[in-house]
Amino acid sequence: MNRPSTLSFITTYRCTAACDHCCFRCGPTRTEQLDFEKIAKYLNQATEIPSIKVVVFTGGECFLLQEDLTRAVEYANDLGYITRCVSNAYWAIDNNTSHQKLKPLLRAGLKEINFSTGDHHLKYVPLENVIRATKLACQAGLTTVVNIELYKNAKTKSKLRTIFSNLKKDYNNL
């Protein structure tokens, strides 16, 4: 019998982007979101399922929850879960802002982060934000994944492959 290993929270349907292909139909005008109390209630219920090891906070854009996200990550971490956030990196506008956004989550015990990007996302979040956030997350020791929307003639994948290959070469030469 397969048992669930991951619990995902769609923390909010609000997002800084309004991608046409969004599977949850998230966007800037959506207001639905979970508060910390509801998240904590569901996390407590999840402790009855011992196969769950990872808790994912996604959206929309989970970073819009701000303090509630940090509290949720800390609470899940205290319960023994590996925690992951999924973000479009809208907040990574410069190095200082990026550090300020990630620092509380790192202190709360965040272990993994996924960044979503692609040609459609770039209408709302510059690729530089994703690159900056990815570099910072890797430097902070987070398991880091960049998810790229793929379709015929998409350009973002090849751009990122080149950028990250060069970063890897620079890192290996240290």
Descriptive report:
The chain is α/β, with parallel strands linked by helices. It contains five helices and five strands; from the N terminus they run E-H-E-H-E-H-E-H-E-H. The chain has helices at residues 36-46, 67-78, 95-108, 127-139, 156-172, and strands at 6-10, 54-58, 82-87, 112-117, 143-148. It has a five-stranded parallel sheet.
Essential attributes:
174 residues; alpha/beta; five-stranded parallel beta sheet; 5 strands; 39% helix; 16% strand; globular
Radius of gyration: 16 Å
H/E element order: EHEHEHEHEH
Number of strands: 5
Q: Write down the overall mean pLDDT.
A: 92
Percent of residues in β-strands: 15-25%
Summarize the structure.
39% of the residues lie in helices and 16% in strands. With 174 residues, the chain is α/β, with parallel strands linked by helices.
How are the SSEs placed, and which strands pair?
Blueprint: E1 6-10, H1 36-46, E2 54-58, H2 67-78, E3 82-87, H3 95-108, E4 112-117, H4 127-139, E5 143-148, H5 156-172
Parallel strand pairs: 1-2, 2-3, 3-4, 4-5
Helix pairs in contact: 1-2, 2-3, 3-4
